[in-house]
Specification:
The chain has about 260 residues and is of the alpha+beta class. It has a six-stranded mixed beta sheet with strand order 3-4-2-1-5-6, with helices on both faces. A five-stranded mixed beta sheet has the order 7-8-9-10-11, covered by helices on one side.
Length: about 260
């Protein structure tokens, strides 16, 4: 097993200036940090996400997914940004502002594809400068649109078909969030090294896929199944015990055969 230090030391020169100043103390949630530049987002309970309506600062470069020209934040992204004072979250009717405690309640319900333990891991990684996205959720549909040449025999979709494609993708995101199970060993986050040139349209392969386990280390069969699911991307596992976040990975070791 590898300890937290094995995640690698981020290159401080690659961390965006604004995100570089995000730090958390160990223990309970960080105190709200007032900022002069604050984004605004509207919560959508059906999606379990927030649509950004006023974007400020640089967090959007490596946070949130883009669908139909709109930027959406997942529940863990919303809570992280609200905690550091970088986001104001509005209710669905735009008539009120949701408090930090309101977002805690939403997170505690565990119905938006992320539980408390996973959020602690997300927050830890973000505080170290890593770029973190949901496993299996594309950052953007732009790359998918650029692949229309590969289906030239059928022709590229027209503008209406492209809009329908993105609308279907939004529905698929909702489905993926709803189908996520949070009680088994599974891939949770794609994690990228700090990179000021990161692009959602071409993010490249993640540095590693973070998988979550509860209580006990995953079995060999589970690890092999996850390795197959994540192809050649390195795996790291996370366990949260009494608020302490631990990251580890497995090396393949073959025991000698005794005669």
């Amino acid at each position: 097993m590898e300890p937290l230090d094995s995640l690698g030391e981020p290159d401080i020169n690659d961390i965006e200036e604004e995100e570089e100043q995000v730090h958390y103390a160990s223990g309970p949630a960080s105190k709200l940090q007032p900022r002069a530049v604050v984004s605004k987002a509207r919560w959508n309970d059906e999606m379990g996400m927030a649509q950004v309506v006023v974007q400020k600062g640089t967090f959007s470069k490596s946070t949130g997914i883009v669908r139909s020209g709109n930027l959406y934040y997942s529940i863990e992204e919303v809570l992280f940004l609200v905690e550091i004072g970088a986001l104001v979250l509005l209710d669905e009717s735009d008539t009120g502002r949701l408090s930090l405690e309101d977002v805690y309640v939403k997170m505690s319900g565990g119905k938006y594809g992320c539980c408390w333990e996973e959020f602690r891991a997300y927050r830890q990684l973000k505080s170290l400068g890593y770029i973190v996205g949901r496993y299996g959720i594309p950052w953007s549909m732009k790359k998918a649109k650029s692949n229309c040449e590969s289906i030239s025999s059928q022709g590229c979709p027209d503008s209406d078909e492209a809009v329908n494609l993105e609308s279907e993708e939004i529905r698929s995101v909702i489905g993926l969030f709803n189908e996520m199970q949070i009680n088994e060993a599974r891939p949770v986050f794609n994690v990228y090294l700090p990179n000021s040139k990161f692009r959602k349209s071409s993010p490249g392969d993640p540095c590693f896929v973070l998988c979550f386990t509860r209580g006990y280390p995953p079995s060999r069969a589970e690890v092999e199944a996850l390795e197959g699911q994540c192809r050649s991307i390195p795996l790291k596992f996370c366990n949260v015990e009494q608020g302490r976040v631990s990251f580890f990975s497995f090396d393949k070791v073959e025991l000698p055969v005794l005669d």
